[in-house]
Amino acid sequence: MKRYDLIVIGSGPGGYIAAQRAGNLGKSVLLIEADALGGVCTNHGCIPTKSLLGGAKLYKHALSGAQFGLEVDGARFNYNQASAHKDETVKTLRSGIEFLMKSAKVDVIFGHAQVLDEHTVEVNKERYGCDYLILATGSSSLVPPIKGSTLPHVLTSTEILALSEAPESLVVIGGGVIGIEFASFFSMIGTKVTVIEMMDEILPMADGEFAKLLRRELKGVDFHLGCKVEEIDAKHVHYTTKAGDRKSIEARMVLLSVGRKPNTAGFEALPLFIERGGVVVNDRMQTNLPTVYAVGDVNGKSLLAHSASRMAEVAVSNIFGSKQMRMRYDAIPWAVYSSPEVAGCGLTEAEANKRGLPIKSQTVQMRASGRFLAEEGKRAGGLVKVIAHRDSGAIVGIHLLGSYASEIIWGAAAIIEAELRVQDVKEIVFPHPSVNELIKDACFALDASV
Amino acid sequence: MKRYDLIVIGSGPGGYIAAQRAGNLGKSVLLIEADALGGVCTNHGCIPTKSLLGGAKLYKHALSGAQFGLEVDGARFNYNQASAHKDETVKTLRSGIEFLMKSAKVDVIFGHAQVLDEHTVEVNKERYGCDYLILATGSSSLVPPIKGSTLPHVLTSTEILALSEAPESLVVIGGGVIGIEFASFFSMIGTKVTVIEMMDEILPMADGEFAKLLRRELKGVDFHLGCKVEEIDAKHVHYTTKAGDRKSIEARMVLLSVGRKPNTAGFEALPLFIERGGVVVNDRMQTNLPTVYAVGDVNGKSLLAHSASRMAEVAVSNIFGSKQMRMRYDAIPWAVYSSPEVAGCGLTEAEANKRGLPIKSQTVQMRASGRFLAEEGKRAGGLVKVIAHRDSGAIVGIHLLGSYASEIIWGAAAIIEAELRVQDVKEIVFPHPSVNELIKDACFALDASV
Q1: Which residue of A has its CA nearest to B316?
Q2: Domains of chain A from N-terminus onward
Q3: ipTM of this complex
Q4: In sequence order, what DSSP letters do the residues of B300-315 get, joined into one string?
Q5: Inter-helix orientation angle B15-24/B305-320, to 10°
């Protein structure tokens, strides 16, 4: 039986980063993948959606550029070409991960892993031994127990990525990140899109003001909030409104994006603590079994690709490294790559209030930015909000809606991670003209002293 | 004679920010402007160029979107419409500054200021007294002493913004930020563009590797480096190559972008120290006259809008505020809004070497980013470089070429200002997929420990 310092099960942004970091420390590592390198993120999530959204944004801009001087005779979105580009992007990135694994001298085996005990894993009928085990098996789309949810035109996010043409109409069930990105994509390319969300607002991690504005900016999308889907049939989605009325919407296609569940199949032999479906871990990513760690969606702590990667680093640090890294959840940025984009890092006002944190906050309209005005025009909506501790001035949250949000937000993660205060941010020189400089404006509005 | 706590001369990003910050502290402020509120930046610089570049980028994307699924029958750039949008953007932002001045209770007078002594300024034949004076008069395009440089088709950056149609061909003399942005703009909309630069490389503040890649990515632009323009006539620009050969290029239009000179007219009565044309200041922005400060281009220290704004804050802090702020130049970001964009903050490798700083550096290709690959395709060029102190790991420079560079770079300013080290950046969670996360990849490549 071949023995490794570390076996990692699952090669998504949790698993492959764990394997790479450990390999680069000189450890012997086996990475086991049941599907394709890169996991859901690379193959059925982050990357293919961003490829499609990129093309759709170009199409939207081509149609709406007249005020900026762009004249177009006729524009079409070629779904097959966009899809081919998406597939090529995924393939290139998979090769990239393959290359990283080779560089880090990580062995890779494709097959379903069955954990026999804390130090033994079986795959393709072979057994492999290890000192440490990292579970990084990710999550799967939740298919809710709704009548009709397994009909052929009712798709998960993985299935909808395999379409060869855009549906005429689409009902998206669930207004979280995945639902909203697909709603934005299909709406940009001409599909009639309706989102049905059970909660009173979309995007639960977003500041309420931002979620509301996003709904307004997603002009082609109809939203039904506080509504419960009762049944799906061949042509309709039937739902109950908050007031108790029964209604239905015609839908050629339905996307189920109501949530995801951790993948724990294969761990049955391990006496793991599992709560609400996720493997329980401490802030070192260690499970109740001292040599077994769990990173990424499988622990249910933060279902984001970059959270998984960070957890992987924390796990490897605590197994083979400095043992100093701890997982913190207060400075994890998130982004929705809709058009317009939304992004945030840290607390919303509602979350801060719930924690009893005394805060001050300032919202600035994006049209106060010369760059935003120059590139988006004065009718475009956009917001920046900075939330700080009322007394210390420590920045606890930054939220963005509008152009470049997803690429601006990392600086907020840096600021919150470094525990900078409003008065520190005022010392930072922001480039002009930019959208990001509105963060500085918000800080000066919170505290005018110099 | 009406007296103020502060008189500010010039309402660009140095002057209006100084007036606003002081006004918001409850001080009585008079702001004097000879032209239009906002100065060169708002009226003839940053803002109008970004408006035009925004439209041109849409046009470029419309023409080059086929691989991403965008099909366009025919596309044209409507110069008049782009120009009208530019003018509207400028007007909106001017009104914005007017509003800010009202909110901060700043008096504004239009006219040429003549400083009579350190506490008296004359404008429109009226005299005004002040305790403190901030000079924020900016700079003007340098017209080099070249034969033909005053011919009607030879324009400064201010004049070229007033065109009503694109020239068939354009020779840009000077490959600094201004020259490169116009070269990129006109090249995108179909003008045949040539850049003649006296130095061996364009963009002196950029890392050499980045400037070189930008030249390659600006596919429609011809570059002649190390060349000295000798004479301009009605149809040609004549220049001498590095090897000493005399050559000439046909040009319907010529842009002079060889540099800018501080505007010191009106200060003749003040015994100011002036060096290389700029008003000498200390790190509090104070001139040799204790109650007179000089911020922005007029002191020649850093000819960037946001540097001027920061200097304004430093000046007001030292006059009326905490007196704690000092001007530092090591964490000032810069951005070139060409297509592709280039941005940087801190030192280049060459600058670090010149200072004798022991460094380590890591360059990452942007195509290692899933987002970049998804949105730009695998043939697009792009780079990220992180430079750190070899021993302490302190980040001393971050450089970017490629999409979102100008909106990513503020985080680099935050990191360098907060004196974070490579090991600190590795603790920051970057959003995935993003271009900015390559900064983290570069940091892990510099130091693989966890």
Answers
A1: A450
A2: 2-141+261-320 (3.50.50.60), 154-258 (3.50.50.60), 333-446 (3.30.390.30)
A3: 0.97
A4: -S---HHHHHHHHHHH
A5: 30
Q: Are A11 and A98 in contact (CB under 8 A)?
A: no
B17, B100, B399, B450: which to substitute to probe chain A, counting the most A Cβ within 10 Å?
A: B450
Reduced to 3 DSSP states, what percent helix, strand and coil does chain A have, rounded to the nearest 5? 35, 30, 40
Count of beta carbons in the 10 Å neighbourhood of residue A389: 16
How would residue B217 be classed by pLDDT, with cut points 50, 70 and 90? Answer: very high
What residues contact residue B142 under an 8 Å CB cut-off, 6+ apart? B256, B258, B259, B260, B261
Give the distance from CA B337 to its chain's centroid: 9
Joined tokens for residue B175 = 């490959």
3-state helix, strand, coil in chain B (%, to 5): 35, 30, 40
Q: What are phi and psi of A10, to 5 degrees?
A: 105, 130
pLDDT in tens, B14-60: 999 999 999 999 999 999 999 999 999 999 999 999 999 999 999 99
The two tokens of residue A70 are: 């762009």
Looking at residue A392, its pLDDT comes to 97
Residue A144: count of CB within 10 angstroms of its CB: 13
Which of A321, A322, A407 lies closest to B408 in CB terms?
A407
Least Cα distance to A62 among A53, A73, A52 occurs for A73
Whole-angstrom distance, CA of residue A93 vs CA of residue A95: 5
Q: Which amino acid is at A437?
A: E
Strand, coil or helix: what is A170?
strand
Cβ of A79 within 8 Å of Cβ of B69? The answer is yes
Cβ distance of B68 and A54 shorter than 8 Å: yes
d(CA A351, nearest CA chain B) in Å: 20
pLDDT band at A142 (very low <50, low <70, confident <90, very high): very high
Nearest chain B CA: its distance from A96 CA (Å): 8
pTM of the predicted protein model = 0.97
